[in-house]
Structure prediction request, 210 residues.
Amino acid sequence: MTKRPAVRPERILAATTNRGKLREITQVLEGLSVELMTLYDLALDQPAPEEGSTFLDNARQKSLFYSRSTSHLTLAEDSGLEVDYLGGAPGIYSARFSGPQADDAGNVAKVLGLMHGLPEEKRQARFVCCIVLSRKEKILTEITGTVEGRISLEPRGRNGFGYDPIFFYPPLGRTFAELTPQEKNNVSHRGQALRRMRDFLTRTLQKGST
Prediction:
């Protein structure tokens, strides 16, 4: 009896250097017949352009940019915080909101400072995540996830990253940084988008059409 050759997992480049995002991508896609590669694995150290005016624009730019350098599926995302009182800021500037040398603590402090003294009803905010999957400069799918919440009065919790300590999620009565990784993935903007991406990959991998 002739043995069938083993099916090699589909390789996917997760085109981000953010360790928190890489961790969440890995968690949600776990169990699929895929092998996640990083920019470090492929020695892709040139930063992608992020010149768009929306999260989706930037996710497209990053996915297409890195897809030129590999034959693998290329998954890129752009995400951030939108605060109603701040006119949608920090928005696409979420990662560098507090300046060129921005870090999570500085960004959080700037948002809290700008909203100091505001009542709860003026602290509405949302997280947005746009994910784009491409191969060889051809976009295969685009997915967006959003989650509504509000900005807390002070940081709470030690999990997560970015603005998680000040993003209060009313249905669970905690900030994202107070949730376990699984709890956060179940409700977050990125978790929503990644689950839909997982569904897309499951369908297309079965058809062999990626």
Notes: The chain has a mean pLDDT of 94.
